[in-house]
Every structure is written in C-alpha cells, then in structure tokens.
Amino acid sequence: ISLANSWFSRLNPTEYIINVRNISNKENLNFLESFHAGWKLYLMDYKSNIYDCNNPNYYKSVQTTECKTNFSDFYQLKNLNFIFAKPIFSDSHKIVFDYANQWQIDPNYIKKNFNNTFYTINKDGSLNIKLVLYFYPQLYVIIGGLISLLSLFVSILYLMVYKLRRDKSLK
Length: 171
What we know:
The chain has helices spanning 107-113, 138-170; strands at residues 6-12, 15-23, 27-31, 39-44, 54-59, 64-68, 94-96, 100-105, 119-121, 127-135. It is of the alpha+beta class. The strands form two sheets. Strands 1, 2, 4, 5, 6, 9 and 10 form a seven-stranded mixed β-sheet that branches. A three-stranded antiparallel β-sheet has the order 3-8-7, with no helix packed on it.
C-alpha cells in the first residue's frame, strides 16, 4: 500500500486497515497487488482503536509503514457487514503500473458526505481517516461456508430423526 502519511495493517490476505493522516488534497492510494475489481474501500469509524500500530516497518520506496498486528480474522462473520456497506471511491478504482490497484482519495468528498465520526479535522484543515480495504468476493466464500455448515447440520438432524423413527417402528 502506497500513500503518503499513512500506515496499514494486513489482517489477512483479503482485508487491510489503512490509517491516513493529514490528507488535505486529493491523493492516490496504490495497492501493489494484482488488480481486481473486487477490491473495495470502506470508510471506517475513526474513533475505533481496535487496530493499533505494533512493530512498525517503514518502506521508504513507497513512503508507507506496515504495522504488524496480532489480530487475525481470516474467516469472521463480521465481514458479512460488507454486504450492506457502501464502498467509497469506487469510481476512481483503476489499474496502475500495468498490474496494481489505485483509488483517488478525496478529503473534500469525505467532509461533504460523512459525519465527523468518520474523520478528525486537524488545525490546518487536513483530515485523519481510517479505511478498510476488503476483497469483496471473499464474502461468497463466507456465505458458501455458512450454507455448507447449515446443510451439514440439517442432514445430520434428518438422519438422527430418521434413525429414531426407524428404531421406534421396529419395536
């Protein structure tokens, strides 16, 4: 992830938390993984401190810091919230460097369209924001897993009821 004055945490291969500080003009956020239209950005409540920066690694070539996190949630149901969440800056999502993802982050759009729980305003008028970068097709995996578990549960329940009825009729 490349964006000036930012740090990010990789929660798992499908979800990243990005903290951006002092953004005052439109800036490009580059995600240096293979381009896919399924990558979506969501604005996060700025006051949430569940993802603090631990063991930071600064990457000078892309001017960003990666924070190691002990939080791993590869298969959490909370991600089902993305079904109903509206992604931000989807219109600006494009391919860059012939392989990577890019979005244009506009602080004025955020100020006009979101209340102040999603950002803080600094003395110079710049914003601090938190973004979630999520691979939306992962929701299909989660939903498929839930359907599979439900099917397994119903099948086992059916077989148990069938066996109980059969045993009862044989007596």
